[in-house]
Amino acid sequence: MSKLTIFDCETPRNAKLAIFGAPFDSTTSYRPGTRFAYQAIASQFFGIESYSPYLNKDLLDYSIMDHGELELPFGNSRKALDQIKHKTEEIINQQQVPLMIGGEHLVTLGSVEAIVKHYPQVRIIHFDAHADLRNDYLDEPLSHACVLRRCHELIGDHRIFQFGIRSMSKDEHEFAQSHVTTQRYQVTNLPAVVEQLKGYPVYVTIDLDVLDPSVFPGTGTPEPGGISFNQLLEAIHSLNSLNIVGADINELSPHYDQSGVSTIIACKVLRELALTII
Ligand SMILES: [Mn+2]
């Protein structure tokens, strides 16, 4: 059976945005299943309008390239990250902005490795329940619990801006205090950060578990105390004035939400993020 794509790709030549799926969940520390996210989004995307009333923009007015899903080796994180890095580089070389659909959060590292090569001044805006700043998880440095720590090694101090964080170890807390900027529980500091990042290339990574589990139960490591959907939407729209050079949406694990609503939320986040970047 052939796999689905989210967007129709008949006229991708002048596309500014290029989507691809990274169905990888091998290092998930609690409940796996994010490998199914891209296909779930692709099968349900028809359920929402292409027009955004918030932005007065319609996806149908833009050409978007969709490469579909990568075929990643589940047992080998480094190989999977190399394939993600390669795909991201290919997209950047086409003068397009890569928008990756995870997968677990580790996939962000492959994309950021390619982004840093082309944009050494890149800053990262990170929405998440979890700080993801561990040096290792069970002695493994390539884990979704360590992904922002690995990104920090690539881009350096005070270039990562985290929002909505409400779960971390004491070590992560201490690391965060001197190396990154973390807003706990909320996203209210975002406008000030956007102001600060004008003129810089920016990579945006959205771990959907930043949303409260009552809003978004379809995820592998749900963490109570999250933001509302409208707060996330407002946060995404406030990125409008930035030079976004890459982005990802990760950690949808569709089978944990029997209602299917989490998948629709991911579809809507994708629509609004895509129309914000374009
Ligand atoms: Mn998370």
Description of the molecule:
This protein is of the alpha/beta class. Helices cover 32% and strands 19% of the residues. The strands form two sheets. Strands 4-1-5-10-9-6-7-8 form an eight-stranded parallel β-sheet, with helices on both faces. A two-stranded antiparallel sheet has the order 2-3. β6, α4 and β7 form a beta-alpha-beta unit. α2 crosses α3 and α3 runs parallel beside α4. The longest helix has 17 residues. It is globular. Bound molecules: manganese (II) ion. The site of manganese (II) ion has 8 residues, from loops.
Provide a short characterization of the protein structure:
The chain is of the alpha/beta class and 278 residues long. It has eight helices and ten strands.
Largest sheet: 8 strands, parallel
Portion of residues within helices: 25-40%
Summarize the helix and strand pattern as letters. EHEEEHEHEHEHEHEHEH
User: Radius of gyration, Cα only, in angstroms?
Assistant: 17 Å
The unique ligands bound to this protein are: manganese (II) ion
Structural class category: alpha/beta
Please state the overall shape, judged from the principal axes of the Cα atoms: globular
* Straight-line N-to-C gap: 32 Å
For the largest sheet, list the strands in their spatial order: 4-1-5-10-9-6-7-8
Please, how many helices?
8
Number of strands: 10
Mean pLDDT: 96
Beta content comes to 15-25%
Low-pLDDT ranges = none
